[in-house]
Structure formats: C-alpha cells, structure tokens
Amino acid sequence: MATRAGADAPSGTDLSGISTDRLDSAARTKALHRINLEGGSTYLPAMLAENDSVLHRWADDRARRPLRVAILRDDTVRGFRETFIANVAWAIGRWNGVGLPVWLEQSPDSTGAEIVVTWVERLDSNRTGRSDLTWQRRGPIIKVRVTLATHLPDGRPVQPTQMVALALHELGHAIGLGHSPVRSDALFPETSATELTSRDRGTAALLYSLPPGSLK
Ligand SMILES: [Zn+2]
To answer: Cα(26) to centroid of ligand 1, in Å?
Structure first.
C-alpha cells in the first residue's frame, strides 16, 4: 500500500515576505535552454508547473559546508520507534549517494542544524509527512523543518519500510525537489519507493545545475 507522504506541495516561507526574485534574462534563457535539453527524462518541468516557475535549492557553497540534519528523538510521541531514526539516516545516505553539491550530515542536536526532523502522531490533510522550507528572496533555501507522522491518515502505525519511503520523499523536498507525476519515483505524492529512481537522481542533478530563482 502506498504511503501518503504529502498530498500537497511543500510549503514555504520567503524571509522577506515578497515573491522570489526573477533570474536576469541571460541566466533565465540559459536555464530554460538547459531544461529543454535535459528536462525530458526528469520531473523538473512538472516542478516548475507546480510551483509557478520558481526553483528553490541550497546554495552552491554548501558543498564545503555540510547541511546538518538533526533527527530529534521524541519518545513522548505515541508510536515513535527508535528504528525511525535509522530509517531517516538511511534516506540521508541515499541522497548523499546522488553526488549533489550538497552533503547531508546527521547532527546530534538541532543547534545550528539547517534541517530539523521532528515527529507527530498524526498530520492533517490526509498526509504522513510535510516539509516547511524557508528561503531567501533570491531563491536559496536556508532552513527546513521536516515533520514525520508515526501513524498513517487511517490510523495504522507507520512501519519502518514506510518510514524509509517517507524520509526519502521529505528529504527530497528538503533539498528543493517538487512532486513527480510518475508513481515509481520517491517524489510521487503517494510514495512507497524505498529507493531513489534514476528520475529522482536526474531531477536532483538537473536542479543543482540551475540557479535558484523565478524562471517566469
Ligand atoms: Zn510531497
């Protein structure tokens, strides 16, 4: 059975409260050309359609500064299992395996962490995971809060393999990916994928070859 990992697009906040800056026209032309050439085997075009032609991702200099991911233990949340920490850590390893210019590193606490993973018993809106992104006006992501539920919308407890699928999906959002229309991809809204597909990897690689910002 598919695990609903977010029926909605990841929500985001712009620090300045205004919309993301447009790329200048030369950068925009170059980016659109690249998407035309390489986007066909990815879901980047679907992401642009879903998100009003805006791309968000972490800045390039993150290659030298790992993104610290704090996976907070929370025994007070009903249904929390120690295994879930390892499930998220495993998903971190899969995304690191793509070879992007961002490197995720598990951090022991949330102090200074760019990505914080927390737990709740249930989420609203018929979903099991959500990612809340904060970005700068020019487009780079600067902070993400990932919330994972210990129970599916129908009330059944999330199993470890489902948590792997959820974590892969939400960490994909955390690095800037939107939803894929293809069922087998980790970023399909109702994912059950416990491995990244070549489309997941290719979309992430293409995203990180483009500048963040609005392509409108
Ligand atoms: Zn999602």
So the answer is: 31
The CATH T-level fold of domain 11-18+59-196 is Collagenase (Catalytic Domain) (3.40.390)
CA 170–ligand 1 middle distance (angstroms): 6
* CA 117 to centroid of ligand 1, rounded, Å: 15
Q: Ligand 1 mean position to 38 CA, how many Å? A: 23
Give tens-digit pLDDT for 24-37. 899 999 999 999 99
Query: Which residues are within 8 A (CB) of 186 and not within 5 positions of it... i.e. 6 or more apart?
Result: 165, 168, 169, 172, 180, 193, 195, 196, 197, 200
Alpha carbon of 11 to ligand 1 centroid (Å): 10
Q: Where are the domains of the chain?
A: 11-18+59-196
CA torsion sign for 128, 213, 91, 116 is: negative
Ion ligand 1: residues, CB < 5 A: 6
CA of 173 to the centre of ligand 1 (A): 7
Q: What pTM does this model have?
A: 0.92
Contact 48, 215 (CB under 8 A): yes
Over the stretch 143-183, which tens digit does the pLDDT of each residue have? 999 999 999 999 999 999 999 999 999 999 999 999 999 99
